[in-house]
Amino acid sequence: MSQLALPLEWPAAEGEGDFVVGEANAHVVRHLHHWSLWPVMATVLVGPRKSGRSLLGRIFVGQSGGMLIDDGERQPEETLFHAWNRAQSTRRPLLIIADDAPGYWKPQLPDLRSRLKASPRLTIAEPDEQLATELIEKLLGARGLAAPPEVLNYLRPRIERSYVAVLRLIDAVDDLSLARRQRLTVPLARLALERIGVIDDSP
Length: 203
Description:
The protein has two domains: 16-123, Rossmann fold (3-Layer(aba) Sandwich), CATH 3.40.50.300; 129-195, Helicase, Ruva Protein, domain 3 (Orthogonal Bundle), CATH 1.10.8. With 203 residues, the chain is of the alpha/beta class. Helix 3 links the parallel strand 2 and strand 3 (94-98). Helices cover 47% and strands 8% of the residues.
């Protein structure tokens, strides 16, 4: 499997090795890497939960020295307004992470609405087959479970293309492996898929 790397100039931030780059998020990484070229020193990043968006935000802050506001739609509008203005005056970038684009928040402050409208908006997509497979392999490895090629080949066409589904699968595999004191095999992977309701092999 091929895997894009984070830009080499990025320092080794805590947790950086846990972020897997694929087609679903590579455009976001490129945009954040070139923050010094932003005409507006703020960007709104939206995407599914468990997509690594907060981790990417922390890596970005470590690289740029900028500011991160997570769960942007749940923060006081005055906080967002002043942070946006401060980013422009100091030329230090602001990254606002949210579940949805500002158009769905419907901010009440007109000046905040106009500022968010002027800011680039990027979206992390749900993982494609390749990224989902790479995430499965990496997350299993982090739990001390080696993923043989035949297991990955079995899971690749069957797992739902979402970050939440990948994490549910990892939890199910980990639980079964511990309970059975068994290494990861295709039958165990099949059982994990049954447990999370992806397949049903019952008579």
